[in-house]
Amino acid sequence: MSERVYSIRDMEVITGIRAHTIRMWERRYGLLKPSRTDTNFRYYEDRELRRLMNVAYLVGRHHKISKVARLGDEELRQLVLEQEMTHTDEDSVVSQFVMQMLHLDGAGFSRLLEEVVGRYGFEEAVHKVIFPFLRKVGTFWQVGSVFPAQEHFVSALIRNRFVVELEKRQQGVVTGSSMLFFLHEDELHELPLLFYAVVAAQRGFRVIYLGPGVPLEDLGQLEAMEGLTHVLTVFTNALEENQLSAMLARMAQLLPGRQFFVTGHQLKLHKPFFPEGFTLVENYRDFVRLLP
User: Fold this and answer.
1) Which residues touch 257 (CB under 8 Å, ≥6 apart)?
2) pTM of the full predicted structure?
3) Highest CATH level, class, for 173-290
């Protein structure tokens, strides 16, 4: 088997169609033709996955399963394309990104990314499409429906696009307040940090981007930096509540008098005490509202 193969559980997770419904559609309409191993293990290949994703898309737009199940693969594809001319909702775009990821199609993924940015604008594209897509990828990874290389593949493509946007928005910014962006040594999730840096740059901040893997004590070297008024960091990777509280307190000591923006799942989970000058950022729109 040279193609990637999928269990019925994988098909359920990726398409959102429950396993018992998939089986029922197979029996009633002959929708899919799964293969079996020598030990009678049922599996699906890319063709069946694409077919089920197209069917799920159409059924979600009020097409009857009894009708779409009779269509050939090319007829399904054409009908989906026709629907997308009139339905540009975010869920359908996320599904397209998923297919590009599963096939490691970098050119297709980047092309679709540019289309989405052109349609929504960069910030709304990230908020409405890219981050929901990444959350879905996280779920797929958690249940084993994608392998780590696929996640790294799309993360690298998205990161590259974010860097291009940041560089573009920083051109000509030579004065004004500076905002520092960093992740501590055990934090791995860089994309939210990069995105917030782009948002700040668009609103006139000079961005000092340190990225991931920054020893906390190194922040003290920036204490005397002129014009550094704000700091943003993200806490997503698992931390004990006392670790998180200690980090927040130490940050306040190392960079006194600065306004700190902090965001991420660990803050919502532990609800730590915030030192003076710290503000929780719930989401992108909240960050925009909080910026001076």
Assistant:
1) 277
2) 0.78
3) alpha beta
Q: Which fold has domain 88-171?
A: 1.10.1240
Q: How far apart are CA 283 and CA 280, in angstroms?
A: 9
pLDDT tens digits along 93-114: 888 898 889 888 999 999 999 9
Residue 259's DSSP bridge partners are 230
If we measure between CA atoms, which residue out of 56, 46, 54 comes closest to residue 104?
46
Which DSSP helix (H) or strand (E) runs through 36?
Answer: strand 35-36
Q: What is 1-85's CATH number, 1.10.10.10, 3.40.640.10, 3.40.50.2000, 1.10.1660.10?
A: 1.10.1660.10
- Please state, for a pLDDT cut of 90, what percent of the chain lies above it: 61
Residue-wise pLDDT for 80-96, tens only, equals 767 765 555 787 788 88
Q: How is residue 62 written in tokens?
A: 């009020």
